[in-house]
Design goal:
Blueprint (H helix, E strand, L loop, with lengths): L1 H12 L8 H18 L1 H33 L4 H33 L2 H15 L2 H5 L1 H17 L3 H30 L15 H31 L1 H18 L3 H9 L7 H6 L8 H7 L1 H29 L5 H42 L21 E9 L9 E9 L3 E5 L6 H8 L7 E6 L2 E2 L5 H5 L2 E4 L10 H6 L6 H10 L3 H6 L21 H15 L3 E5 L7 H15 L3 E6 L2 H4 L4 E6 L2 E6 L1 H6 L4 H10 L8
Parallel strand pairs: 3-8, 3-9, 6-7, 7-8
Antiparallel strand pairs: 1-2, 1-4, 4-5, 9-10
Bound molecules: adenosine-5'-diphosphate.
Length: about 650
């Protein structure tokens, strides 16, 4: 029952819809090829040239071999025999070498496939509106794309291998048709009784039609069998995901190791693993494999064999009727089988491409998500903080998919050069207020104005340049210290050092083995240094200073610092920030006391604003309550 509930939920939010129309298949497939061409123009070219060359090689061999056998069985002219043998050997050697070289070139290009595909998706993730990253549907799309790629190479991957198959099958077919054309034209010689019927045009048409019918039937049946993969893709994805979690990450994840040991319960039981395994005998896919899916596949194999049988009989009867000699028998048999193989591969590939449509639809739905934030085009004058006025006008906000408002009807104006402290209990909406200010989200209701104009009208990237923020859960990267501070691989080292000094990291910097070139953390470099939470916070502060934006926003800037370090940071804050506007967020009121302008949030509402002295004297206010509650923990007079 529980499992059914889980499956239901999954189905609701996650479906690889059925394959699309022919037009949609063509459009999405061509678009997919354009994506690959954009990523690596050599990729498709190498597949094309390699496919053509390597597919041609065997047919040149077949043709020359047939001539050689004919000559051995017939005239036995030594000169001609020598020419055929030499031609056979040299073309075979040259084409094989050429094919091997081109295959190498192609494989080198194919080796970049995984990287190129990840780059396409990663670039989309990095440029996506921040709000969309939280969106359940976006996460679902991402996860489906990975699952589809992992489980059967569906999506963009499939296109490259399909392209390869189409080239090779088309070349096989063209060569084979050229080699078999005379099979139908060369007549059975007179006086061969019943075999003369093989010369009759109607019979020839009938036999061609039969061959085509059988050739089409085999791959169509195979594609029909393959469609069961699409049908059960969603369910298999759930199984794959859970397996990835159970067997791939849960045991290896150090962060989960403690909880798993304490609350292990039956999470890792064999039964659980079995229940969701899509490949066990009781899964739907396995049942289909024993039933219709397997039936179609078996029928496809049988039909292919019928084709081979028909072709053999036809060639043998014509040879018996004296239409051609033994050399041509070899040529026709090889070519007819190759023709059938080529056609089968082509039809199967086209079927695959059709099945791939629903997977490509998911890929492009993800890649085409609009950047709603980037609609504005007004220039933001960059004037180092002076002359900016920001107004929140009746702003309310709900996080995507949430019922409750995280901010309700907030109205506030503040000016450049001001120091503003934002205080309130955890969950009162302080960080949300900042996220709206920095346009990581847009308000659900109301508007935010910069110098009287809705911030949505400004160029998004220019607007973002106004703010340096140190978020509470900021992250540094495992690169060089200087690169971290600059947010760039090409740091201005003097400026980076200055900023680190101002942020209080100077003494530690002097002790680092390679100064600004020291790599922090050990992710990519064994010699990387580990840093404490407080040190990381100072580096993050330096990064904010380096950006040199007019507004500096510090979300709980001293949360990871010990009281002495906290005191240092606040004592130096004015000097550190200089002329810039600054917004401090804290639930420790003592930290914000030095700001003349304090706003108090409570349950998503802005409930008070004023100086510390004014706010603390209002004994009925929220600020007084918070202050009284915290005063016993902090020796405020020390600050
Ligand atoms: P504060 O910074 O004052 O601690 P926040 O602004 O982080 O508070 O949170 C305000 C409210 O919004 C809280 O109820 C919190 O649970 C909710 N919230 C914060 N971030 C998200 C999010 N990404 N998705 C949904 N709700 C969120």
């Amino acid at each position: 029952m529980k499992r059914r509930i889980m499956m239901k939920k999954w189905k609701k939010s996650n479906t690889n819809k059925a394959h699309g129309s022919f037009k949609e298949t063509v459009q999405l497939t061509l678009r997919g090829f354009r994506v690959w061409r954009g990523e690596n123009p050599m990729l498709l070219l190498s597949v094309l040239i390699c496919g053509v060359t390597c597919a041609l090689a065997p047919y040149v061999d077949i043709w020359l071999l047939a001539r050689l056998i004919d000559e051995i069985a017939g005239g036995r002219d030594p000169h001609l025999l020598t020419v055929y043998v030499l031609a056979l050997m040299s073309t075979s050697a040259v084409l094989s070498l050429l094919c091997a070289g081109l295959t190498r070139w192609k494989n080198v290009q194919l080796a970049s496939l995984w990287h190129a595909q990840n780059k396409v998706f990663m670039e989309r993730m990095l440029s996506m509106d921040f709000a969309d990253m939280d969106d359940g549907h976006v996460q679902e799309l991402r996860s489906r794309i990975w699952q589809n790629t992992d489980s059967g190479g569906w999506g963009l991957y499939k296109l490259i291998y399909s392209f390869e198959a189409i080239i090779s099958s088309a070349m096989s077919m063209i060569s084979a048709i050229l080699l078999t054309a005379s099979l139908f034209i060369l007549p059975v010689t007179a006086g061969n009784g019943g075999l003369m019927i093989l010369n009759h045009p109607v019979f020839i048409l009938l036999i061609i039609a039969l061959m085509f019918a059988v050739t089409f039937a085999a791959p169509l049946l195979s594609v029909k069998a393959g469609s069961y993969w699409v049908k059960y893709a969603d369910e298999n994805q759930l199984g794959n995901r859970l397996f990835g979690f159970w067997l791939g990450s849960l045991g290896n994840d150090r962060a989960k190791a403690l909880d798993v040991r304490i609350y292990r319960q039956d999470i890792l039981s064999r039964n659980n693993l079995k229940k969701y395994n899509p490949f066990i005998p009781t899964s739907k896919l396995a049942k289909a494999a024993r039933g219709p899916m397997g039936g179609y596949q078996a029928l496809s194999g049988a039909v292919s064999q019928i084709f081979v049988g028909v072709a053999y009989i036809f060639v043998a009867l014509k040879a018996l009727g004296g239409a051609f000699g033994v050399g041509r028998v070899v040529q026709y048999v090889s070519a007819v089988i190759a023709l059938s193989g080529g056609l089968s591969m082509l039809i199967e590939t086209l079927g695959d491409l059709r099945n791939n449509t629903s997977f490509l639809r998911t890929v492009f739905e993800f890649l085409d998500m609009p950047n709603k934030m980037e609609q504005g085009d007004m220039a933001v004058s960059q004037n180092s903080g002076k002359g900016y006025e920001i107004e929140f006008r009746n702003v309310s906000f709900k996080y995507p998919g949430q019922e409750d408002y995280a901010l309700s009807n907030v109205s506030i104006t503040f000016y450049a050069g001001q120091r503003l402290a934002v205080v309130g209990t955890n969950g009162s909406g302080k960080t949300t207020f900042i996220k709206l200010l920095c346009r990581l989200y847009d308000p659900t209701e109301g508007e935010i104005l910069l110098n009287g104009i809705d911030i949505r009208k400004y160029n998004y990237h220019e607007y973002m340049q106004l703010f340096s923020v140190v978020f509470q859960d900021f992250k540094l990267l495992s690169f060089e210290l200087g690169q971290n501070v600059a947010g760039s691989m090409n740091a201005d080292l003097d400026k980076a050092e200055q900023c680190l000094q101002r942020a209080g990291f100077g003494i530690r910097l002097g002790k680092l083995p390679h100064g600004l070139s020291t790599v922090i953390y050990k992710e990519f470099d064994e010699e990387g240094v580990d840093i404490s939470g407080g040190e990381a916070q100072k580096i993050a502060l330096a990064r904010a200073l380096y950006k040199d934006a007019p507004f500096i926003i510090l979300d709980e800037p001293t949360a990871a610092l010990d009281p002495i370090a906290e005191f240092e940071v606040y004592s130096n804050m004015n000097q550190m920030i200089g002329e810039k506007s600054a917004i401090f967020i804290s639930h420790r009121l003592s930290s914000c006391r030095f700001c003349h302008d304090i706003v108090v949030f409570h349950e998503g509402r802005l409930v008070q604003r004023g100086s510390h002295d004014a706010l603390v004297s209002d004994e009925s206010g929220m600020y007084y309550r918070l202050w009284s509650a915290q005063a016993q923990y902090y020796e405020v007079k020390d600050l």
